[in-house]
Inverse folding.
């Protein structure tokens, strides 16, 4: 086997493979919109931005030439708080913010009164017509009323002046006098409405206060009458807490009741003791009770009876007198009389103790009754005093409120006159002497800027809606593969092709070896040689998602570049359905790949060569078979590739599109490296994503993508890889001018 044409160290291979195998999704994930991206988008869509900018400029010019002469009248009024605030009864408008008054100036009622007074609905200059409406407009119609108010609202401009009490009112119409009349009439209606509103509010407040005053007067009089009646009932002395005798009377009666209860208990105890004891001991008990008179009388009677008993004993014992003796009879009678007196005195003492007990009980009962009566009288007086204080409080508060409302009512009569000073006309609207026209330059500038802004917005909208792959970042993000090379799109200018062969005409790498076009294929060659670990790929398949993406152009030129430096390269046209390589290179297409696979021809006999590239062998497709897929997927195809590896350094296969037929998928499984060709500005995101999925399912070694037909002067690729500065380095103008392949004949795929 021939040696490698581009010997590289193992370290350099690993470094380059690491750079190529970096996940593009990781780069995309960290991608952020920068100012350069914005400028790139604007550069791409510059025609849209410039077109709308010019359209805005033309529209501004049209508006400048078609300007309508309008007249603007302006008036100023001052709306201040006024001198009546200190007397305000509530409900007035002037206490509100200045913005509230501006809203009132714009109110529908006020504007309708202005329109009605000036008869604006029948004024052709206000309506913008040439003649008056016929018949006259009826203001009672709701639609007419709403329409004229809305139109008048559009004519007026009412703005408060910051940090002042001034309001500026302007009106813009086609008639100068009408503009001034509208402003002055609006101010007049506003002042009239404000005055009427203030007077009405004052009258309503006055009427309300009069009714409230009558009610309060009746309440005050009723409270005063009740208070006087209670005062008469209670007495003037009872009203003075310092002169009240109720507390002292209750205290005295309470003490008396307690003493009476004690006396009653003692008397009852004495009686019960006397009634239950021996009568002979009454004198001693009475003496102990402190009744010395009764005790002495009983003692004397007992002593007399004892003396009489002693005398009787002397008469009967010493003298021996018999019971019938007159002296004995007189002594016995005297003793009986004394005993009778003693019994009567004992009975009298018991009766006296009982009477004392009854008297003490009656005294206690009467004292308690008097105390309870005094307490009830005190409670009734306390209730009367509370009622008196309540009536007094009602009378005082009612009188205070009555006097306050009466004072406010006296000031209401002057409030309407004071309110008239709240609004003052600073500048009355004058008839404008000249129309107000917008500046032509400002119209042009404003509309041009508006067009440019719309153009920028539209440019970004179009950019977001564009599903085409127009940048390396987009292609890497969608495909998930690194970009191996950018193949420029350029055309040859001023070069005589009459002396060139067919191969040179269609292979830019042969006709312009130092051009950007050829350098792009050298870059692709280097990327491929460093794409796999261990050794360079032997079998390289070039495919695409859809037709006409430049697979044949890339395959032929890549084969020529790889065949340089004595490397033997075999280019196989694997498109058995619509072959084009033999047309591009001017070769015979009767014998080719199908001839080898069917066994009618050997590989060495089927290959063809170019005089311009002696180390490049080309195996065209040959006759079109009935079943291309089965032929390409046969064991014979595998054996042929294995045999070709023993002869050639690299084998490059040009295959059909992946999404059209399955031939490319079959060939991908037999290849060491697969390159997906993406045409700049034509391939879509969905097609590239689908093609990658098909390749991944076959476990093919997909090396990366090659971006074909790139306009290096476009904003996305300007200066990419230094192409803009590399042009012309060591080459002639003919070589650096680029190359475009010969247009394939009708029926050719690419």
């Amino acid at each position: 086997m021939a040696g490698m044409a581009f010997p590289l160290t193992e370290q350099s291979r690993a470094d380059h493979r690491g750079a190529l195998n970096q996940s593009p999704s990781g780069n995309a994930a960290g991608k952020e919109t920068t100012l350069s991206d914005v400028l790139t988008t604007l550069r791409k869509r510059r025609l849209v931005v410039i077109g709308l900018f010019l359209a805005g400029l033309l529209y501004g010019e049209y508006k400048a030439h078609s300007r309508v002469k309008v007249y603007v009248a302006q008036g100023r009024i001052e709306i201040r708080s006024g001198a009546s605030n200190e007397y305000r009864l509530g409900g007035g408008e002037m206490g509100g913010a200045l913005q509230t008054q501006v809203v009132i100036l714009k109110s529908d009622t006020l504007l309708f009164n202005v329109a009605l007074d000036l008869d604006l609905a029948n004024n052709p200059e206000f309506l913008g017509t040439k003649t008056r409406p016929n018949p006259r407009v009826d203001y009672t119609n709701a639609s007419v009323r709403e329409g004229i108010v809305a139109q008048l609202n559009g004519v007026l401009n009412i703005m408060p002046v910051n940090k002042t009490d001034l309001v500026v009112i302007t009106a813009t119409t086609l008639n100068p006098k009408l503009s001034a009349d509208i402003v002055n009439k609006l101010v007049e209606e506003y002042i009239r409405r404000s005055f009427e509103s203030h007077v009405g509010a004052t009258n309503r407040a006055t009427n309300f206060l009069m009714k409230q005053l009558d009610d309060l007067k009746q309440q005050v009089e009723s409270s005063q009458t009740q208070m006087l009646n209670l005062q008469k009932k209670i007495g003037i002395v009872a009203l003075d807490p310092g002169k009240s005798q109720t507390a002292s009377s209750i205290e005295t009666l309470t003490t008396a009741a307690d003493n009476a209860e004690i006396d009653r208990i003692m008397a009852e105890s004495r009686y019960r003791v006397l009634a239950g004891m021996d009568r002979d001991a009454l004198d001693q008990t009475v003496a102990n009770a402190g009744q010395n008179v009764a005790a002495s009388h009983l003692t004397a009677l007992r002593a007399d009876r004892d003396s009489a008993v002693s005398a009787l004993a002397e008469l009967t014992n010493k003298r021996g007198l018999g019971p019938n003796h007159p002296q004995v009879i007189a002594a016995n009678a005297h003793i009986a009389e004394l005993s009778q007196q003693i019994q009567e005195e004992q009975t009298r003492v018991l009766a006296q103790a009982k009477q004392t007990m009854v008297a003490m009980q009656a005294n206690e009962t009467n004292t308690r009754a008097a105390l309870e009566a005094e307490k009830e009288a005190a409670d009734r007086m306390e209730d009367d005093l509370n009622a008196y204080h309540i009536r007094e409080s009602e009378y005082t508060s009612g009188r205070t409120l009555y006097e306050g409302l009466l004072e406010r009512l006296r000031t209401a009569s002057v409030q309407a006159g004071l309110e008239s000073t709240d609004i003052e006309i600073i500048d009355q609207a004058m008839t404008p002497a000249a129309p107000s026209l917008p500046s032509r330059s400002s119209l042009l500038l404003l509309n041009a800027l508006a067009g440019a802004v719309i153009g920028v917005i539209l440019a970004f909208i179009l950019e977001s809606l564009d599903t085409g792959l127009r940048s390396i970042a987009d292609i890497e993000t969608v495909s998930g593969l690194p970009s191996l090379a950018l193949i420029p799109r350029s055309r040859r200018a001023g070069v005589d092709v009459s002396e060139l062969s067919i191969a040179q005409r269609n292979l830019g790498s042969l006709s312009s070896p130092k051009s950007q076009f050829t350098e792009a294929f050298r870059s692709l060659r280097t990327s491929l040689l460093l794409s796999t670990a261990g050794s360079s790929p032997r079998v390289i398949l070039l495919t695409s998602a859809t037709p006409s993406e430049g697979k044949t152009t890339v395959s032929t030129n890549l084969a020529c570049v790889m065949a340089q430096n004595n490397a033997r390269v075999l280019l196989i046209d694997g498109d058995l359905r619509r072959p084009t390589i033999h047309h591009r290179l001017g070769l015979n297409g009767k014998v080719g790949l199908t001839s080898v696979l069917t066994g009618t021809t050997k590989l060495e006999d089927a290959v063809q060569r170019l005089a311009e590239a002696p180390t490049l062998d080309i195996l065209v497709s040959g006759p079109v078979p009935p079943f291309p897929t089965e032929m390409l997927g046969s064991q014979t195809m595998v054996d042929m590739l294995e045999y070709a590896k023993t002869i050639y350094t690299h084998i490059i296969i040009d295959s059909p599109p992946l999404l059209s037929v399955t031939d490319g998928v079959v060939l991908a499984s037999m290849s060491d490296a697969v390159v997906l060709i993406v045409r700049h500005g034509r391939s879509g995101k969905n097609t590239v994503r689908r093609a990658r999925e098909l390749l991944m399912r076959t476990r093919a070694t997909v090396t990366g993508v090659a971006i074909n037909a790139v306009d290096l002067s476009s904003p996305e690729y300007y200066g990419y890889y230094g192409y803009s500065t590399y042009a012309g380095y060591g080459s002639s103008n003919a070589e650096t001018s680029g190359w475009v392949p010969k247009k394939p004949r009708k029926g050719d795929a690419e």
About this structure: Residues 326-412 form the longest helix (87 residues). The two ends are 33 Å apart (CA to CA). The mean pLDDT is 77.
